[in-house]
Amino acid sequence: MTLRVLSIATLFPDAARPDFGGFVERSLREAAHDADIDLTVIAPLGLPPWPLSGHRRYRALANLPHVELRSGLTVHRPRFRLVPAIGGRWNPAQIARAVLPLARQIAPDLIDAQFYYPDGPAAMRVARALDVPFVAKARGADISHWAHRPGSRDQILAAAAAAAGSIAVSGALKADMVALGMAAERIAVHYTGLDSVRFQPIDRAAAKTARGLSGPVLLSVGALIERKRQDLVIGSLVALPEATLLLAGAGDREAEYRALAKDIGVEARVRFLGPVANADLPALYAAADVTVMPSESEGLANAWVESLACGTPLVISEAGGARELVTSDTAGRIVARDRQAIADAVSAILADPPSQRAVAASVRDRFDWQRNGRELADFWRASAAR
What we know:
The chain is of the alpha/beta class. It is built from 16 helices and 16 strands. The protein has helices at about 20-30, 55-60, 90-105, 120-130, 140-145, 150-160, 170-180, 205-210, 230-235, 255-265, 280-285, 300-310, 320-325, 340-350, 355-365, 370-385, and strands at about 5-10, 35-40, 45, 65-70, 75, 80, 110-115, 135-140, 165-170, 185-190, 215-220, 245-250, 270-275, 290-295, 315, 330-335. Strand 4 (about 65-70) and strand 5 form a beta hairpin.
């Protein structure tokens, strides 16, 4: 019997942002390969009122098609009113209002939310209107950030109580959800996937030469925002005088981080690469001796898995599912969010580097997209039957 699933995903790629939530698209695409799943994706676009709507970022979003076939998935992009910075608490209601007319036409058996906030409370509203069950997935910041804010905490807990089931991307994130008051027996752990063809060891010396690099190379992948703490990685360079740092990402802390690098005298050894396409990341991981990501919060970062799959060990902080990945010194180190602790861990790895193949083996058999898709489709079926 075919199960009609409508997935709400505010984190989803488009022509203006090709790598924005690519892992969400891949997971849904794999689940849709199940012959008994009829999947439709709704990726709502938040647009602010004028004059902010005239900003080039929002103009690009406004010009996207309202419906398209992308990677074999039918994707609808209804618009909702967004108030940047201060309007987060109202987003679920606005999204539900935009989604509901489409949802009535699709008549799904199950509503799926791919991010616990704002997607989860929005899915709850739509599911109630259609009298169908819904599920929601927690990925990291939706729990570590939004679940602790006054305007969104109650909405997240209400969605968890009403959902037919919830998913967490790591066991540690599930524990965080339970600590908030969510029912443990209704939360499944669903690990991310891995493109093992794209992400695999590449000769490190050749990768460095191709980028004009020599000596120890550190890499940090992620948006340049406060909770990612790239400032600590920059600061660690003082104790790593031969190292070069590659920062792959963009964000509102970039100017601050450039100033920091200049102030502490490491400016010449920090390369701001801006956003890097997922297809270009393997060459970066290969060129790096260590990937360093001392984030304050994560679920189970795709970048962690991808780095290990390319044979590059990690230095990361105690966040999310860190200990579910770094289970030995071969995979890397888990350290305090401290410049010296980071430098010490990097130095230890550089002094006795594990082989790229040994690092890759730590994740090779644990993560793949086909398994991820099968597990998601099975979770949908079980939740719809409750």
